[in-house]
Amino acid sequence: MIELTAAQVADATGGELHGPAQAAVVGPVVTDSRTVTPGALFVAIDGEHADGHDFVGAAVAAGATLVLAQRPLPDLLATLDEESAARTAVVVVPDTTRALGALAGDVLRRLRASGEIEVVAVTGSVGKTTTKDLLAQVLGASGPTVAPVASFNNELGLPLTVLRADATTRYLVLEMGANHVGELTYLTSIAPPDLSVVLAVGRAHVGEFGGIEAVARAKSELVTGLAPGGTAVLNADDLRVAAMASLAPGDVVTFGTVRDATVRADDVRVDTLGRPSFVLTDTTDGRSAPVSLLLSGEHHVSNALATAAVALCLGVDVAEVAARLGAAPALSPHRMQVTERADGVTVIDDSYNANPDSMRAALKALAVVAGRERRSIAVLGEMLELGQDSRAQHDEVGRLAVRLNIKLVIVVGAGASGIFDGVTQEGSWGDEAVFVDSLEEARAVLDAELRDGDVVLLKASNGAGLWRLGDDLAGAAS
């Protein structure tokens, strides 16, 4: 965060200033009073589970010098001692979430006016977090880089990420998610990207959007929201994404496995741990280099290509891009996180999130890792936010598990019961398919079933809570 005064924050947010205009923000911008450090700006969010205004006193006691609030706080200011009152201010705005976005936009404009910061934004129905993690590592080798923690990709998380940038930041990587048409337009109004990366249009949140074409329209907002002179980086393997080229206000770079992709992967192979390798080719100059990823799952080739396309656009040599990709580990937990246990069991924890596309990719990775020599076990939970097609989509996942010859499918929870229906109707029965109501029951089945050499996948939407079982299994010694 660059240093700002209370008066500057009030100007940026259109808020009403209470307290000294020169109160200085020299620390981070936070929404959790437990993370306040001296000089911080505390944003009081009236959220679904808690009202941040209830924690303003704790934030100021911890050293916050400025509070962004939705109502005046005269009692707070009146109780401060003389020294604290001289350095503590409150800016009152109608909506602290929107004010946070306005502040982030103002700070980014200041950074762009005074430096060479490049903003890279990523969206897509699958792969956003892995791609931003790869970008953080690949671009981070070229200069100071700020990227989101966890999945800070919404109207709160994105501004907080922007506000971590300062005058030294060379690359600002942003993950932009959307549940409705118009959300990416808002996010790009805060941080117009210099490079917009669209990974895929899939069925994540399709129930909230109202259809796959609405998902495509929403993702295309990242392209139309580019900064002047910006570049659209599009997945040539996804026809809906490739079609967004016509909406780009400037240059377009494509990535994929098809022949006409600007940045292409050739000779894709997968090893026994599911880790892909390929030849990375920049067709603009014909140069190429081999890449071997540390990540498990062939679907990560697309994420790596998107990262490579961005890095090449920013002037990194193709051989250097390949080397950096090959050295990049998985950073975020519960995303194709592979653990080799001492008892010979391999745990593939991909339980952070799930939609039909990522579920298919994870099952295919399980089949590859297990191969013909090891037993494959899939523990599958509900895919949320699929709308009226939910039952059919779960059914298709179950049928795919059978076609991939997954040896045991454990379906957890009533919301995922369509997977069990698909498994049984496609031909699995008896000991090949199990339905349980709870994580505890799933763990009991695994305790009875797991043996040396097994490969077990855990996959569900985050809200299904399967990640708890993932932590349990990965942490088990036997």
Total number of domains: 3
Q: Which homologous superfamily in CATH is the superfamily of the largest domain?
A: Mur-like, catalytic domain
Oligomeric state of the chains in view: single chain
Mean pLDDT: 94
Query: Remind me, CATH topology of the largest domain?
Result: UDP-N-acetylmuramoyl-L-alanine:D-glutamate ligase
Report on the structure:
The chain is α/β, with parallel strands linked by helices and 478 residues long. The chain has three domains: 4-96, Udp-n-acetylmuramoylalanyl-d-glutamate--2,6- Diaminopimelate Ligase, Chain: A, domain 1; 115-326, UDP-N-acetylmuramoyl-L-alanine:D-glutamate ligase; 337-475, Alpha-Beta Complex (Protein-Tyrosine Phosphatase, Chain A). 37% of the residues lie in helices and 20% in strands. It has a nine-stranded mixed sheet with strand order 9-10-8-11-12-13-14-15-16, with helices on both faces. A six-stranded mixed sheet has the order 17-18-22-19-20-21, sandwiched between helices. The radius of gyration is 24 Å and the shape is globular. The two termini are 46 Å apart. The mean pLDDT is 94.
Question: Which key phrases capture this entry?
Answer:
single chain, 478 residues, alpha/beta, Udp-n-acetylmuramoylalanyl-d-glutamate--2,6- Diaminopimelate Ligase, Chain: A, domain 1, UDP-N-acetylmuramoyl-L-alanine:D-glutamate ligase, Protein-Tyrosine Phosphatase, Chain A, 3 domains, 9-stranded mixed β-sheet, 6-stranded mixed β-sheet, 18 helices, 20% strand, globular
